[in-house]
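In this supplementary section we document a worked example of the pipeline. Step one takes a protein sequence of length 173 as its only input; no multiple sequence alignment statistics are reported here. Step two produces a three-dimensional model, which step three serialises into structure tokens for compact storage. The input and output of this example are shown verbatim.
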Amino acid sequence: MTKEEKAKYIDDLAVELSNANIFYLADTAELTVEVVNNLRRKCFQSNIRMRVVKNTLLEKAMDRVEGKDFGNLREVLSGATSIMFSEVGNAPAKLIKEFRKKNDKPVLKGAYIEEAIYIGDNQLDALDNLKSREELIGDIIGLLQSPAKNVVSGLTGAGSKIAGILKTLEERA
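The serialised model returned by step three reads:
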């Protein structure tokens, strides 16, 4: 790779990092071509962009991104590294867990999710349990609707009871 190609590669990667709010770093070393192709296919089906990166070039791209702190993610840049970009915070974690049912890798090195940093494969379960933005909005709407539904059902129930009592009193008279 020439200096110009490296510079363009770093610039492109820096743009991707600055535009991405969610990305995972994974170790995909020692996987056969067939297994890597299968992983890429599953990534594509899950709307996840995956690419293998050189650690030194990724570190230089991280240095060029302004306004984002990648914290300790630089410390995990050793060995073979693949980067997975996603729009949903838990999608790569779910994919990695599902894929590892049949394979030993990929192993999670770290993740950057909306300015939060997760380091190590032991964080995979926590990342898998993250709720997406849509799920959180649904939960909030459900919580907001719950008291209103209780008031409406209370008024409806009480109204029918009062009407029943009045009808009974009317019939007695």
